From TrEMBL, chain B:
This is Succinate dehydrogenase hydrophobic membrane anchor subunit. Keywords: Cell inner membrane, Cell membrane, Electron transport, Heme, Iron, Membrane, Metal-binding, Transmembrane, Transmembrane helix, Transport, Tricarboxylic acid cycle. Pathway: Carbohydrate metabolism; tricarboxylic acid cycle. CDD domains: SQR_TypeC_SdhD (cd03494). Membrane-anchoring subunit of succinate dehydrogenase (SDH). Heme binds at H71. It comes from the Bacteria. NCBIfam families: succ_dehyd_anc. Its main location: membrane. The lineage of its organism: Bacteria, Pseudomonadati, Pseudomonadota, Gammaproteobacteria, Oceanospirillales. It comes from Marinomonas rhizomae.
Amino acid sequence: MGLAFLFYAFDLSLESQEGFDQVVNALQTNFLVKFVIWGVVSALMYHFVAGVKHLFMDMGYFEELESGRSAAIANIVIAAVLIVLAGVWIW
Amino acid sequence: MVTQITSFGRSGLYDWMMQRVSAVVLSLYTVFIIGYLLLNPDLTYDQWSALFEATWMRIFSLMVLLSIGMHSWIGLWSISTDYIKATGARFFFQSLCGLVMFVYIVWGVQVLWGL
């Protein structure tokens, strides 16, 4: 879902100088664009952290109840931090 | 043994591996792009387009495009086979996913090498 927006921005930003300026300007001034890109980046950050956790799980970590639970909590905390940082970066 | 025709690979193990391989490629690209944007706050069009004209970046980006296709197919396939029990609905959903993925890959190639 989010990729639709990213591909559109990717396409526009490489098409021409005007397209690039349009993307930069929108990302700097347009509230809705900022909100959408923040949403997409947030979803990606959560997915990214959970994915890394899964890779560790494939190597045999976080498989007991306690370790699994603490890894899950860490996942949420780390993702939340990244999402806030992304918000600061975007706004 | 259920014969699978809609999964990505012929075996579940193949899908499992390709899911991880594509995940690593995608995560490297994500870190690279975000790092690149952070390190170049006043990025110019010339700089940005030059980046994507470099062959290594085109190879990397194409690898990512294909990884997006693989990763999302395998991921959405496992979701759809878990939750969409009605065969017709599931097949429609998977076809839609396939179509969207194909569009994204072609669109990406178009951006990188388009006229």
